[in-house]
Amino acid sequence: MRRPQDLAARYGGEEFICLLPETNHEGAIAIAMAIKNNIAALKFPHKGSQVADHVTVSLGVATDVCDATSLPEHIVKMADGHLYWAKNNGRNRVGHEGTGAH
């Protein structure tokens, strides 16, 4: 994460979350694509993978305009749905609302 207000943290066993305040949907997708591509470029060996011979990541992107009534669970559920879409459609993808995956 490049800006002081951005946060990347472990969220569960093998999952991470990136919070990107004041980032629009297209910007969040671009950051997710950069994360995916940069990890793939490292070419960390991953024996036993059915996707690639190196470590890859699947990502789910969700954006929302939050207000006083917003619940964190809502955006986490949206991102989780897009993540599982990416996993179920070949992995090493970015799932997001509208365009599916990249």
Structural write-up:
With 102 residues, the chain is of the alpha+beta class. The protein has one domain (7-97): Reverse transcriptase/Diguanylate cyclase domain (Alpha-Beta Plaits, 2-Layer Sandwich). 34% of the residues lie in helices and 16% in strands. The chain is built from two helices and five strands. The chain has helices at 25-42, 72-88, and strands at residues 7-10, 16-19, 59-61, 94-96, 100-101. It has a three-stranded mixed sheet. Strands 1-2 form a two-stranded antiparallel sheet. Strand 3 (59-61), helix 2 and strand 4 (94-96) form a beta-alpha-beta unit. 15% of the residues are buried.
- The counted number of beta strands is 5
As laid out across the biggest beta sheet, the strand order is: 3-4-5
- Which CATH top level class fits? Alpha Beta
Averaged pLDDT: 92
Strand content: 15-25%
Main features:
single chain; 102 residues; alpha+beta; Alpha-Beta Plaits; 3-stranded mixed sheet; two-stranded antiparallel sheet; 5 strands; 16% strand; globular
Summarize the topology.
Layout: E1 7-10, E2 16-19, H1 25-42, E3 59-61, H2 72-88, E4 94-96, E5 100-101
Parallel strand pairs: 3-4
Antiparallel strand pairs: 1-2, 4-5
Short description:
With 102 residues, this protein is α+β, with helices and mostly antiparallel strands. It is built from two helices and five strands.
